[in-house]
């Protein structure tokens, strides 16, 4: 209809980056062009469906919307079927079997140092009870072991996987893609959705150390809380990071 204008929806916005939706186009604005470089190259390499790049004019990257809807949301029950969760696991396995990206990921020492610093901050600033932090730091230790690097998405949140019924239509937000631990991707996919871990592992079709998955749940939650709070998100909402930590007690 003539004269009808598309509304601008703010999908996410904070001091580092913002994503806007205008109709079927997503505009990602990021002052750090290195992240956008990684996203563009990772999408070109990934053996999974990804959003179509419409144009790029730094600091903006324009992407076409994917069909379907997200597998779920952190803090909300997922309405997706067990088969859909298994399909997400199979997609992760396909990615992890793909050739490695040429750029490295975070090393084990860097991850452990960051974890210790965030745990100290949480306790020193009375953000969380010391026993809760201590217990989850112990659980996180299972993730701090050598791994064989694979092509990881790096932020495979349940809201980044799009489905049409039980079929994957695409995976978004590749700016954290790198060489990394396969079980980290599986942990991020199932963070706050522990009841679907069995379906994801079944779709992944490989031996998975569940203690390592739980370790990554604790590690991710401990290290994310400060960033989330400083960027306008609430990690204490039901089903989110603080509840994930409490579930380990």
Automatic annotation (TrEMBL):
Domain Aminoglycoside phosphotransferase positions: 42-206
Superkingdom assignment: Bacteria
Segments traversing the membrane: none
Database matches in Pfam families: APH
Coiled coil: none
InterPro entries recorded: AGP_Transferase, Aminoglycoside_PTrfase, Kinase-like_dom_sf
SUPFAM superfamilies xrefs: Protein kinase-like (PK-like)
Protein name per the record: Phosphotransferase
């Amino acid at each position: 209809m003539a004269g009808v204008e598309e509304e601008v929806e703010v999908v996410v916005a904070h001091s580092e980056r913002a994503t806007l939706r205008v109709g079927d186009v997503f505009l990602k604005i990021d002052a750090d062009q290195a992240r956008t470089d990684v996203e563009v190259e990772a999408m070109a390499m990934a053996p999974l469906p990804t959003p179509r790049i419409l144009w790029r004019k730094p600091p903006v990257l324009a992407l076409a919307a994917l069909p379907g809807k997200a597998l779920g949301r952190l803090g909300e029950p997922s309405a997706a079927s067990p088969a859909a969760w298994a399909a997400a696991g199979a997609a992760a396995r396909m990615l992890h079997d793909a050739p490695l990206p040429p750029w490295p990921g975070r090393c084990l020492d860097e991850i452990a140092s960051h974890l210790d610093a965030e745990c100290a901050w949480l306790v020193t600033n009375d953000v969380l009870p010391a026993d809760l932090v201590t217990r989850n730091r112990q659980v996180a230790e299972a993730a701090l072991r050598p791994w064989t690097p694979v092509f990881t998405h790096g932020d495979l949140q349940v809201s980044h996987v799009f489905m049409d019924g039980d079929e994957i239509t695409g995976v978004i937000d590749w700016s954290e893609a790198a060489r990394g631990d396969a079980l980290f991707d599986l942990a991020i996919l199932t963070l706050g959705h522990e009841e679907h871990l069995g379906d994801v592992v079944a779709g992944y079709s490989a031996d998975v150390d569940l203690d390592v998955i739980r370790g990554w749940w604790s590690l991710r939650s401990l290290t994310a809380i400060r960033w989330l709070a400083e960027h306008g998100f609430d990690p204490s909402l039901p089903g989110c990071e603080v509840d994930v930590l409490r579930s380990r007690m």
